[in-house]
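ENCODED BACKBONE
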Amino acid sequence: MTSTQTLIPKTSSAAPFLPMSRAEMQALGWDECDVVIVTGDAYVDHPSFGMAIIGRVLEAQGLRVGIIAQPDWQSAEAFRALGRPRLFFGITAGNMDSMVNRYTSERRLRHNDAYTPDGEGGRRPDRAVVVYAQRCREAYKGVPIVLGGIEASLRRVAHYDYWSDKLRRSVVLDAKADLVLYGNAERAVVDLARRLNSGEAIGDIDDLRGTLYARSAVPESWEVKDASHWDSQWQGRVRTPEGRQPALRLPSLDDVSADKVAYAHASRVVHAETNPHNARALVQAHRDREVCLLPPPIPLTTEEMDAVYALPFRRLPHPSYGKAKIPAYDMIRFSISIQRGCFGGCSFCSITEHEGRIIQSRSAESVLAELERLREEPGYTGVVSDLGGPTANMWRLGCKSPKIEAACRRPSCLFPKVCSNLRTDHGPLIDLYRAARQAAGVKRVNIASGVRYDLAVEDPAYIRELVEHHVGGYLKIAPEHVAERPLAAMMKPGIGAYERFERLFNEASAKAGKKQFLIPYFIAAHPDTTDEDMLEVALWLKKHHYKLEQVQTFLPSPMSSATAMWHTGKNPLSAVSPTSAEVVVPAGERVRRLHKAFLRVHDPEGWPLIREGLIRMGRRDLIGGTPSHLVPAHDKGPRRGGEPGAGKGPAKRR
């Protein structure tokens, strides 16, 4: 394991921007780059962009790092822009998975891209890391290919691909990569660069945490057990001879392709082996190749987090973009990340899968120092758009006991209820908010990251602080559903937790003399959701006078537990077998449209589908023209305020 001092900068020399051209390299006096990062995003030198963090971390180690951003992938020419890198090509699809970025949940092509100048669509290929890796090999044969970022991270084993509706191999094989770094990769990429710089061959580097690679055989030092027996034998600690790497063998590519139960079980094991303090290595056979995964990376310490965010980011897009607007940058340019990770563990979400469930927090001093630097930015008016991260209110929270945390395999600290070993005191976060509001030049601090409401109700003082100072009229909250079955499949709390938060929010708003409203988010067509479950949501929305404009339909992203449910009809949150209970899979286009229509019951476009569904469910009593009905019997005619489905806006009015 790399020393905790690895990420502390070793040099104060920094380029104004990491170079994107030979001319910029020459201005810096470089004749070559040590590392060239290829990314599917426009290059923004801001710590919210992964390529900027990795590039600046490597630069701080004294390395020369160049960026090739959104290259033309039709040939290898664009990949030669900075010459042959001395150590390796680092390849990432960008801050978003390229398939999620390019396609809707209905597999329709998106025509814009928030990570591209002027929001232009089509500037990155499908499965970008695979395409970029091929072009890098064509550009310079023999240069090591290293993948990273969320797209590669979520494809580390054989996985169901929603867009092709079939299983795909591990990305390390699809991209023919030498190494894949999964999760937050600062520690691994620094150690990798150091070892390559000292002369080690990349094929000999097989012991870096948070990495995976393909070999013809499992390393001799691995003590491999059959993961088929995980529930009966291997959940706890497994004795391993000293000096041996404990490892579990997942069902092979052939097994998970032929047997959906095997796929669901493999998913269960992968998610259970994610605690960096107790996870075993994993191995999965892909025909004549063994895909070998080392245990997850050790979370960064606060000191390391502070060192990373203190690096000399310009917090601006590269000058080559001129006056072009990059929507993703405009959204976060005056925001500050205070933490990483999420212990919520929602089954449909990739945050925990990528960043882990152990919260990594910056110090208050580091956050306030970045607030001070904001004053130097052009266009800053004193309004901070966000202090947050994957969630707004997990900063400095975690397990009360390091010993318990080291042994725990729970996928969530909040489901089915808040763990009794979890620290839920938001006092330090409240203090941080207050210090931020008092910082020089700060007029207002908004909180735009999602608030985990079931955690917030554990500390009502936090809700009061949030409501009084950090809500700009509306606050987005994600209960996701109201019915127990889909909520259990999502690993989300019952709707009662949301309603408790709503009550405290409304009380605090009234006391502060403010008219403020919640905007709830819901998911349509999530695994284990029936038509009747969606009807329950529609009735709840009607009762609470919500009219939703933005709703989302479940998108089966690679690797998630919910995607395993979608593909297999089994629930990997508990032991799976051929006889275990089946999960409802609302996969057809018509049922997905119906479920979405139930979330927008005020929209006449969906009424025919809803009427048809209600008749099928034997609920004709909900069709009619009075306020007690859900939808009218006919589409024509004026719609009055008292007609079914009529709402007063996106949030409740008291």
User: Anything to note?
Assistant: The first strand starts at residue 35 and ends at 39. The chain has a mean pLDDT of 93. The longest helix spans residues 495-511.
